[in-house]
Amino acid sequence: xxxxxxxxxxFTDAVVAIAVTLLILPLVEVVTEIAKAQGEANGGxxxxxxxxxxxNQPAILSFLLSFVVISRFWLxxxxxxxxxxxxxxxxVRLNMLWLLCIVVLPFPTEILGxxxxxxxxxxxxxxxxxxxxxxxxxxxxxxxxxxxxxxxxNPVTDREIVGSLAFLACAVVAFLLALVPGVRLYGLLAxxxxxxxxxxxxxxxxxxxxxxx
Length: 213
What we know:
With 213 residues, the protein is mainly alpha-helical.
């Protein structure tokens, strides 16, 4: 049985919005904690607001990183659902798994911000991205060519499929690099060329595909 996807999309957008909001809450709490601590230490003198930035750079950077990651996945998810005319139970399950990864992401983000970067925290964060990318790719492949789910006039393109696969491959590489001592979060740099790789592969496929007269 299939249904109109509007309700599923609205629910997904709401959950993503909450997840993005959760990313910033720890930083908001830090402001109060530092102001209180400095006030007690300085005998009631005005606290130094710059300390909020200088003493929490890892937390701020991890927040920005996860904000970009969630935004990127939401944009891709939004693009996939523009091709969806209905949903079934399998699509719902995959979408819920996708949302689970989105909701979980603030947890490893907080670990990165509060603890010294090590192999575990980097692998935990990168591993979450791998599951998220795998779920995103599976969603894309499920919709592609599915007569009951896909809008016939607006099908999933080969470029979108290649893009999802390229990002998934780069996410796996980033995870493996995170396990290497000394690399850790620098492995996430492997995600940067995913767009260029997808474009290159798509262009090669288009050249090899014979044009229809």
